[in-house]
Amino acid sequence: MTPLSSYIGRFAPSPSGPLHFGSLVAALGSYLDARAHHGQWLVRIEDIDPPREKPGAASDILRTLEAYGLHWDGDVRYQSQHLGDYQAQIDAWLASGQAYYCTCTRRQIKASGGVYLGTCRDKGLGATHAAVRLKSPVEVLAFNDRLHGTLHLDATLANEDFIIKRRDGLYAYNLAVVLDDLDQGITDIVRGADLIMPTGRHIALYAQLGEPAPRYLHLPLALNVGGQKLSKQNRAPAINNQAPLPALRAAMTFLGLQSVASEEVATTTELLNLAVNTWSLMHLPRQTEVITGF
Ligand code: GLU
Ligand code: ZN
């Protein structure tokens, strides 16, 4: 594969439970793409939503990555150690009038058709019980994905003043992910197709910050036999740390690497090396969702 100039990729799990097959696919896809481009592969724990986190999940995820031979470069970054950076950016935008406080409840927004229509934009509200929204973000109607080509986004959502800090005081994923990807110099984002929609907001934030957006590759999303996204919420089973080869082979098959998945090898390292050499977007399934047995 032709090296993309100076590639830095990452896997950015939220520690809401152990790794399941869907997150293994995201980890493996981002790992293989980074290694195939002789790039770095970083791991970032997105622990900014304590009510949804499970004690021990972060270290559990890291142990699982190691058991699967998915070794990362440098130190693991924890978003919870960078809250000051998120607040500083929000404060700067509040001061310059590019962000504002909003006290609308979810129920009120639902009542007005589910889209926030800028109700609080010019009210000059204070911080009490308020979310922070970005004022008239750059409208992103489409973006280029390395697998899918041009992906079009919902125009109503593209115009929405979206939340960068929640009413409950937690920082929005959309803001934290962009500030960290910028800070870590990420050039390539490889993740599940469930994150195609928020990508428009991420690109709007890059534009707001005057920075170029990274390249994007959205992998097909693994669904369970009921057609649901595998998630901690619908209790997708944790993958086996003791015997990693079967799930690793299944994840490779899912990513179009059947020929590698069936190779007789004794270790995850051997299998991963073969996969790095074979990795190509040509093999990747084009649909955004795929049913798996998991
Ligand atoms: N932390 C997000 C998740 O677990 C993924 C972030 C990303 O890859 O952009 O769904
Ligand atoms: Zn409001």
Textual characterization of the structure:
The protein is of the alpha/beta class. The chain is built from 10 helices and 12 strands. The chain has helices at residues 21-36, 57-67, 83-96, 106-111, 155-158, 173-183, 196-208, 245-254, 258-261, 268-278; strands spanning 8-11, 40-45, 77-78, 99-102, 131-134, 142-145, 149-152, 163-165, 188-192, 215-219, 221-223, 289-291. β1, α1 (21-36) and β2 form a beta-alpha-beta unit. α6 crosses α7. The two termini are 30 Å apart. The model has no long low-confidence stretch (mean pLDDT 93). The structure holds glutamic acid and zinc ion (ZN). Glutamic acid binds at residues 12-14, 46, 177, 191, 195.
Question: Would you kindly provide a brief summary of this structure?
Answer:
By secondary structure, the protein is of the alpha/beta class. 34% of the residues lie in helices and 16% in strands.
